[in-house]
Amino acid sequence: KLNIGVDTIQHGVEGLTYLLTESSKLMISEVDFQDSIHVLGFSDELNKLLLHLYLDNRKEIRSILSELAPKLPSYHSLEWRLDVQLASRSLRQQIKPAVTIKLHLNQNEDQTAQVLQTDPSTLLHLIQQLEQALGEMKTNHCRRIVRNMK
């Protein structure tokens, strides 16, 4: 009926969907949205229509996007145990430590447990990496990114 190719319509719908979802994710203001669509070269009437469409639907789009986000497991509790092998039949004087960790997680109101085992040196390296990541979160750059994600 439109005398337009299927690919053109599909690309138009995908572009409109991308514009509305990304704008809703970032919760950009009316002025920023207008500036974003102004460079596309549409008529003023179409720009006003797109702005109205964005303003009317951005909260609903954000709620749908939050429902579509993957539900990651959350921390519940942690149990740990230190095992040390002091000797074996072939080696009478050896020290072989191992740390066993049982991590209890909540996912969709179900509790699961993951059992992990490592040596102390790997555990210390993991702790250092996590502390470095926490320190990185305190930088202004990361704070800005987290603020824009909300």
From TrEMBL:
It comes from the Eukaryota. Residues 74-141 form the COMM domain. This is COMM domain-containing protein 2. The gene is COMMD2. PANTHER family: COMM DOMAIN CONTAINING PROTEIN 2, COMM DOMAIN-CONTAINING PROTEIN 2. CDD domains: Commd2. PROSITE patterns: COMM. The lineage of its organism: Eukaryota, Metazoa, Chordata, Craniata, Vertebrata. It comes from Eudyptes sclateri. It holds the Pfam family COMM_domain.
